[in-house]
Amino acid sequence: MFIKGQFRQSEQLALMFQAVEAARNGVVITDPVQPDNPIIYTNPAFTDITGYAADEILGQNCRFLQGEDRAQPALNDVRLAIKEGRDVTAILRNYRKDGRRFFNELTISPVRNDRGKLVAFVGIQNDITARIEAEERISDFYSIVSHELRTPIAKIKSSLAVIADGEAGPVSDSVRRFVDISIKAADSLWRLLENILDFKKLESGKFFLLRQRLQLAQLVESAVVEFQPVADAADVALKFHRLASPTVDADGQRIVQVLENLLSNAVKFSRSGSEVNVKVLSHGAEWARVEVIDSGGGIAAADISKLFGKFQQLELPDKRTRGGTGLGLAVCKAIIEAHGGRVGVESELGRGSTFWFELPSCTSVGRTSVTDS
Ligand SMILES: Cc1cc2nc3c(=O)[nH]c(=O)nc-3n(C[C@H](O)[C@H](O)[C@H](O)COP(=O)(O)O)c2cc1C
Question: In the 3-class helix/strand/coil scheme, how is 70-112 assigned residue by residue?
Answer without folding.
Answer: CCCHHHHHHHHHHHHCCCEEEEEEEECCCCCEEEEEEEEEEEE
